[in-house]
Amino acid sequence: MFDKYMVMTRGFQNTSQNGKIIGFEMKVRITYYRGVFLPLLTGFDVAVDGEKFKPENMRFTYGGHTYTFDEIGKAEKVHWDFGEPATLTILKPGGLKPGIHDLEVVQTVKPSYMPNGFTGSTKRKITLVA
């Protein structure tokens, strides 16, 4: 529904832990106008410059808590409100090189009243600044 607002232009950056770059992150928003409880969020497909990343290499941070996509299924009381940014972290040793990247993101949500669920998707060029 609101696919063009899913990936925010701010917050696309490499992320580090203990002085080492462990991957990159981006700010994302839910594309469904009602928002969703986290267990209804079944995941993201992410590709940067044609490289696809697996869900087990992703972390989702919202409301001060970080989840794997297996853990999201247990966060039954956490509602991701429409318009509120979350952080999607992709674990990739060394992160991304600074510069312009082709980004593709698909977000999948499966509410009970939509048996096939729905997806939000976006393709854009986005700049990672060192």
Question: Could you walk me through the main structural features you see in this protein, from its secondary elements to its overall organization?
Answer:
Helices cover 3% and strands 50% of the residues. The protein has one helix at 69-72; strands spanning 13-17, 20-28, 36-37, 41-48, 51-53, 58-62, 65-67, 79-80, 86-91, 99-109, 118-128. The longest helix has 4 residues, at 69-72. The protein is globular and about 40 Å long. It starts with 12 loop residues before the first strand and ends with a strand.
Q: Into how many domains do the coordinates divide?
A: 1
Average per-residue pLDDT, rounded, comes to: 91
Strand content: over 45%
Major sheet summary line: 5 strands, antiparallel
Number of helices: 1
Task: Enumerate the spans where pLDDT stays under 50 for 5 or more consecutive residues.
Answer: none
> Helix content range of the residues, please?
under 10%
Report the top-level CATH class.
Answer: Mainly Beta
Please describe the topology of this protein:
Layout: E1 13-17, E2 20-28, E3 36-37, E4 41-48, E5 51-53, E6 58-62, E7 65-67, H1 69-72, E8 79-80, E9 86-91, E10 99-109, E11 118-128
Antiparallel strand pairs: 1-2, 2-9, 3-8, 4-5, 4-10, 6-7, 6-9, 10-11
